């Protein structure tokens, strides 16, 4: 019986060992699964940490750019205000210098100009005006012949027009 008893004990042990091995296998699989899960969780936490760090860095960079742009806007606004004040000052100065009294004061004080005396005023009668105009016209014709113009085309057009009117005036005098 001892052999039977020992054989029965061995069978019982084998029965109990098999489930222990299945339990051990299950425990090992669970441990491996837990390790894989922990590695995945650690990678996920690290990835989220990197994303949060990059987001914070981007936020800081954007805030710096916004601050810089605000400073530039402030500087440009100050420059615009200064330019407007200078423009108003110059407009006021133009108004002051453009007044007739100011021009007269500048002419007499700075340039040494004076009003003419009655003796220094010369009057020209209308006959003399015509005579001077004719002399100038004669001088112009002489100078036109002597000096060539920069614009010969325009000169020839002007001569053509003036000769046409001279011919018309001569024809009117004959009639």
What brief labels describe this structure?
175 residues, mainly alpha, 2 domains
Describe this protein's structure:
By secondary structure, the protein is an all-alpha fold. The protein has two domains: 1-122; 123-175, no CATH class. It has four helices and no strands. It has helices spanning 2-97, 100-109, 126-146, 152-174. It is rod-shaped, with a radius of gyration of 56 Å. 0% of the residues are buried. The model is unreliable at 142-147 and 168-175 (pLDDT under 50).
Helix content: over 70%
> What is the percentage of strand-forming residues?
under 5%
Large-scale geometry: rod-shaped
- The ordered H/E elements are HHHH
Q: In whole angstroms, how far apart are the ends? A: 176 Å
* Average pLDDT metric: 77
* Total strand segments: 0
Tally of structural domains:
2
The total count of helices amounts to 4
Return Rg in Å. Answer: 56 Å
Uncertain regions: pLDDT < 50 for 5+ in a row? 142-147, 168-175
The main pleated sheet reads as:
none
Counting helices, strands and paired strands, the structural category is: mainly alpha
């Amino acid at each position: 019986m001892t052999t039977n008893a020992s054989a029965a004990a061995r069978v019982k042990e084998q029965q109990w060992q098999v489930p222990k091995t299945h339990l051990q296998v299950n425990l090992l699989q669970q441990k491996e699964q837990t390790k894989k899960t922990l590695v995945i969780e650690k990678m996920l936490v690290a990835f989220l940490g990197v994303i949060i760090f990059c987001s914070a860095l981007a936020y800081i960079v954007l805030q710096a750019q916004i601050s810089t742009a605000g400073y530039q806007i402030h500087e440009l606004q100050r420059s615009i205000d200064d330019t407007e004040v200078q423009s108003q000052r110059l407009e006021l100065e133009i108004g002051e210098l453009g007044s007739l009294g100011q021009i007269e004061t500048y002419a007499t004080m700075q340039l040494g100009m004076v009003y003419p005396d009655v003796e220094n005023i010369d009057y020209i009668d209308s006959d003399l005006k015509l005579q001077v105009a004719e002399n100038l016209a004669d001088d112009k014709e002489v100078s036109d012949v002597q000096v060539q113009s920069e614009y010969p085309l325009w000169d020839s057009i002007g001569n053509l027009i003036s000769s046409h009117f001279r011919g018309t005036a001569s024809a009117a005098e004959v009639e």
